[in-house]
Amino acid sequence: MPLPHPSESVYRRVTVEFGRVAFGSQDPATLRVPIPDEWLDAPPDADLRETSLIRNPDQYTDGLLRMASLTALVPGDQFSLWVFLHSRDGQPFVMDRHGVTGRSVGNQTLGPLANLQVYATNPQGLYEGKSHGLCAHQKSLSPEHDLLTLRDFVPLYLQDPGYGYWTGSGWCSKCAGYTVRRLNEEQFAHYWTSVQAAHAALSGGLR
Predict the structure, then answer these.
(1) Sign of CA pseudo-dihedral 100, 103, 107, 109
(2) Who's near 46: CB < 8 A, 6+ residues apart?
(3) pTM of the model
């Protein structure tokens, strides 16, 4: 059975506006150093690993760095990547490496999300251990993260997709192994339409 269809309010958590309100609007008087504008207003193609907050971490608390990261980024477990995964035959699932269990895929086009930034610590699986985005294991963005586009990340994820709604063995089970830049208005419109279409197709395919 597919997961219950999520409400729109759930998916609005991936937007730039949500990030600013939820993590960037704390009373400056309560913060030793406020979140820099270069995080709050960084253009979608800016490499956040090059910001002063990363370059000079001793000037800031760990908590501030985490809030800054969450202002601009969405942990992978809150982003429905499965919607944009594709099966070769157009079916709403791909089989695991043993051909036993299928992972749900949405077969939706990336559209304006193609160049969406993805940060992950080990997306190519070059090192021992799992890849992380933002979670208990990797609490904030750091130089350890690689930067990819969603277009380049999707094929890597399909190499080890896991099954159902769970991640594969190479990805962190807490954050799905990656984090993405928060979506602007155009990106969210495409994302939300794609989510609805993928859920409708999956529901229809399981009847």
Answers:
(1) negative
(2) 38
(3) 0.90
